[in-house]
Amino acid sequence: MSLVITEVLSAPRQLWRRFADWLHARMPKGLYARALLIVILPVVLLQSAVAYVFMERHWEVVTYRLSAAVARQVAAVVDVYQTFPDDPGHSQLRRIAALDLNMELSILPKAALPEAVSKKSLFSLLDKALASELSRKILQPYWINTSVPGNLIEIRVALNDATLQMLVTRTHAYASNSYIFFMWMAIASVIILAIATSFLRNQIRPILRLARAAEEFGKGRDVQFSPRGAREVRQAGNAFVEMKRRVERAIEQRTTMLNGVSHDLRTIITRFKLSLALMGESNEANEMRKDVDEMERMVEAYLAFARGDGGEASSPTDVSVILEELKADTERRGISATVKVDGDPSLVARPAAVKRLLANLVGNAQRYGKTLEFSVVNDGEHMIVHIDDDGPGIPVERREDAFRPFYRLDESRNQDNGNSGLGLAIARDIARSHGGDIELDRSPLGGLRATVTLPI
Length: 456
Known about the structure:
Layout: H1 2-26, H2 31-83, H3 91-99, E1 103-109, H4 124-137, E2 142-148, E3 152-158, E4 162-169, H5 179-218, H6 231-279, H7 283-307, E5 315-318, H8 319-332, E6 336-342, E7 346-349, H9 351-368, E8 371-378, E9 382-389, H10 423-433, E10 437-442, E11 448-455
Parallel strand pairs: 6-8
Antiparallel strand pairs: 1-4, 2-3, 3-4, 5-7, 8-9, 9-11, 10-11
Helix pairs in contact: 2-4, 2-5, 5-6, 6-7, 8-9, 9-10
Domain HAMP: 201-252
Keywords: ATP-binding, Cell inner membrane, Cell membrane, Kinase, Membrane, Nucleotide-binding, Phosphoprotein, Transferase, Transmembrane, Transmembrane helix, Two-component regulatory system
Subcellular location: Cell inner membrane
């Protein structure tokens, strides 16, 4: 029993969840569109409710009251006709109808009333109201036609000896100027929406400026930003400016410290080299020189990884020029290389950092491939660089590990000459500092493909 109750109760929840998912999928995703919807939807609902109330209450009441007035006039004409049958030609009745009631009266021979005329939907309310009021005011059979050309209503009343035909202007029984209400309502809605759209655009603009500034700062570019807009937006902008200041201060302090460490370590290595030079030529001295050279390369790699090239300013950078230089270096090593460019190869980045990024990837390919291919594609939003080789490649399960600092793929391929395990780590760090990334995949040449994606 409890299981049945649970299933019965869960059905509405599932329906509501499906409806919520369906509605969420169709809702606008942008803040401007959502805010505009918040403004438009209540206005539309309010105007719809007002229109419904007007149609169902005001318009109907006015139409019924006007129809009642026409019904009273018709009843008065019928009473006068029956009260004064001796009026020759009923000239006085016609005069009263024309002058005082604004009605054209004709007295026709007695005949059967026509069949009911098919009513237009536009005047269905008039037909209903006028028929109801005539039924209350007169006892004789009647016939009405609200679709007479010339904006007229024809009313016929069957009497014992004649048929009274009355033509009345439709505006006497029908609230025909109701369109003015809808016109003003539409104009007011357009004005409200125009004001709301303009106001929202001004409120959204500072948020977009903040988003662009954060995006530019995330790409490592120089950003000049001053908070504007509403109080909450200014608070977020001030928080961003303070965060940017702290990050820049931390980078400056780290750069200063690394420069000091670099100077001290280079000084010691220089002393080692000088001491080895004074020792002369011997097997022991040669082995020590190799160790000192290896130490120097490793120290440079460690410092480059820790520094991250954060002190360099961004500027327009031509990737194809860098790849042509790397192609020339590759060919000097006796390795075949080609460069393909599709689209504009320029982007705003730190030139030396991008060159180091590509040099690390190309150097890694040079050590294990005999044929290299470099390609650049500009898709309008990103600069995509492919570096392919025909080497042994890297197993799929170890490609992500290849980016870990100090991680060595000894069975397959190392990441740099010094065997420090920092080549790919430095390359990815540079790419991510520009707002991009690096991915490894299988190359069409059979080896490894390194794909660099950088925002333009």
